[in-house]
User: Which sequence fits this backbone?
């Protein structure tokens, strides 16, 4: 009995020490916690009065890409980052995500002001704030400055086009979902005419608006991947056609697709420049309304979660963009 009791005490003592060691390990200051969305302040002059959030996967090495993802109207950074699939892909492929957030004081519907002249010019307003966020993220994560990408939905897509035009040297590519070409509100005379009707411009006129945003800049220009629902009555599909016209012209390409096929059952086109490089890709999502295409699930091509303006159409736009950009 004595030997049995002694053995039991040794087992109990060992278990107690093991639990104590585990508790101490988890309470040790500086121990890495699971990655989560964090707000960053003091990232620059912030003339557009935006908020900066970011997601950095645990153990992310230096030299990794950065994706700037801009939410749509009525959305916020956290919901869009998760719902669109970008945070999921950041963990899967190893890159960091910057998630700018609009404030209601700037826009009552939390839309980025893609249509305001003071917010879409280089060095001004919201465009300058987003550029400062990208710079801060590169510095803090020792990211790859040659692999920074910008994307967004709706008003966020319009602001993504702004960043591609006003800061082309910062972004290797852009991904625009249900968005607008750069300068569309000014060309149409109103943001609502742009959204519901479109603006009458030639490809050269569209391209000239981009070139005027960064005078004297000779390239390289960001490439574009665009997604648009054919049943979108908030941002009419003509806007994706105009985005294609704008950015093919900027790249010196024609407006005739070099590839016309289907992806996940949806029409997909690729436009190449004279050197054969894909400079514009478009996805026309048949029957989809206004929102971001997602494909919830654990499959290799799946990402995102369904919700308001996050539409399960068995195609994840973030995945398609990431593959086009060489992220995964």
Assistant:
């Amino acid at each position: 009995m004595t030997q049995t009791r002694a053995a039991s005490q040794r087992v109990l003592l060992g278990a107690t020490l093991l639990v104590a060691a585990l508790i101490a390990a988890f309470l040790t200051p500086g121990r890495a916690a699971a990655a989560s969305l964090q707000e960053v302040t003091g990232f620059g002059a912030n003339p557009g009065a935006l908020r900066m959030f970011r997601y950095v996967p645990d153990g992310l090495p230096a030299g990794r890409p950065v994706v700037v993802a801009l939410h749509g109207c009525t959305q916020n950074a956290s919901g869009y980052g998760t719902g669109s699939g970008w945070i999921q892909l950041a963990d899967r492929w190893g890159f960091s995500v910057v998630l700018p957030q609009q404030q209601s004081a700037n826009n009552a519907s939390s839309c980025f002001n893609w249509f305001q002249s003071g917010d879409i010019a280089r060095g001004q307003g919201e465009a300058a704030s987003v550029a400062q966020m990208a710079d801060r993220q590169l510095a803090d994560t020792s990211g790859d400055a040659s692999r920074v990408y910008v994307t967004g939905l709706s008003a966020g897509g319009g602001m993504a086009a702004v960043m591609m035009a006003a800061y082309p040297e910062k972004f290797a590519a852009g991904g625009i979902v249900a968005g607008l070409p750069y300068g569309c509100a000014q060309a149409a005379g109103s943001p609502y005419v742009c959204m519901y009707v479109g603006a009458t411009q030639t490809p050269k006129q569209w391209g000239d608006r981009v070139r005027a945003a960064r005078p004297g800049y000779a390239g390289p220009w960001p490439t574009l991947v665009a997604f648009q629902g054919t049943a979108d009555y908030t941002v009419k599909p003509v806007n994706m056609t105009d985005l294609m016209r704008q950015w093919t012209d900027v790249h010196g390409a024609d407006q005739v697709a070099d590839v016309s096929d289907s992806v996940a059952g949806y029409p997909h086109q690729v436009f190449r420049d004279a050197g054969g490089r894909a400079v514009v890709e478009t996805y026309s999502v048949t029957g989809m309304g206004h929102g971001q295409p997602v494909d919830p699930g654990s499959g290799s091509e799946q990402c995102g979660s369904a919700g308001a303006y996050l539409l399960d159409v068995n195609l994840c736009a973030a995945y398609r963009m990431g593959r086009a950009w060489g992220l995964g």
